[in-house]
Amino acid sequence: ALLSGAGPTLATAGNYNNLLGVPLTLLALRLDHAFAVIEMGASAVGDIDRLAALVKPRIGVITNASPAHLAEFGSLEGIIRGKGELLDHLPADGTAILNSDSPGFGDWCCRARCPVVTFGQKGADLVWAFEHDRQEALLAGASWPSPLPGAHNGANLAAAVLAGRALGVADTDLRKGLGDFAGSAHRGVLLELEGRTILDDAYNANPVSMKAAVKALVELGGEGRAVAVLGHMAEMGPDAEDIHREVGASLAASGIATLVAVGVAAEPLRTGFDAAGGSGHYCATREEAATLLARISAPGDRLLIKGSRSAAMEELLPLLEDSFQSP
To answer: Would the pLDDT of 198 be above 90?
Structure first.
């Protein structure tokens, strides 16, 4: 969106970020494209190396390292190593844009063979903060409107602005492009259903993004209650149950009124939440969750819908619409 203020920009659609999706994206390049933003996903060490060899990037952005896809990566260290493969493919006159607040930052700085520019909440080249009341990011003290809720989107906006600047785009053009931003379905979208505010972040989930989305829900403010409706987090490896329980426990002090875990694999979220002093609910199916939420929520409340792709939590939305309208 930022780059489109300066010229035609190709960007990855949906989740076309793997060994099939990246080539399809690259084949959509036209001579009149001024820029291309190519997302590269990974579920194991070596994936980014193969994709970056196809993309040949000049600017490389690593947003963060968090415990996702542990089933294949094996550990956070494996994730850091795998994401760092991007840096091996940047040219000497390219730019690496790195999150100074992320695990692995030091390793990535050492691995980079080109200039590094950093973003973070302190001690970075671009220090960012987030103003929840106005939903604005402060980038080096300058206000930028954030089209998506949550402090984590302040970090994302900072990274994107640095990428635009590295490509020589003026801030005036970046702001112009930002004004035309259109969000992707089920990725931090705010909806209204029968007087309730829905934060639809159902597209995917891992422990860090789950906590960030719950924090964003709470910080939306309002007089109603905040309710987290959560499916499971996939590819967590042999410790999946413990990871879900730990995330649930951490959410007990987040400020949400209650947690609703949906599906068998998500149930440990609720047991962890309850063990840490919360009072949660478990629903085996999305249909059960819709019925429960019609009973325990009211107009003015805020609901987060989130889970991994395989949880298909977006399918809860039409069920909620029906259940909220039922007498």
So the answer is: yes
Q: Do the beta carbons of residue 190 and residue 94 sit within 8 Å?
A: no
SS3 track for 191-218: EEECCEEEEEECCCCCHHHHHHHHHHHH
Task: Supply angle C-alpha 34, 38, 44, rounded to 5.
Answer: 165
Q: What percent of the chain is modeled with pLDDT above 70?
A: 99
Residue whose pair of structure tokens reads 């968090």 in the numeric block: 66
Amino acid at 318: P
DSSP state of 148: S
Rounded Cα–Cα distance for residues 203 and 190 (Å): 13
Closest residue by Cα to residue 124 from 109, 143, 145? 109
Exposed/middle/buried for 265, CB within 10 Å: 0-12, 13-18, 19+? buried
Return the structure tokens found at 121: 């909440």
Mean pLDDT of 269-295: 98
pTM tops 0.85 = yes
The H-or-E segment that residue 83 falls in is helix 76-84
Nearest to 2 by CA among 132, 172, 236: 172
Q: Is the model's pLDDT at 222 over the cut of 90?
A: no
**Six token digits for residue 276:** 């840490």
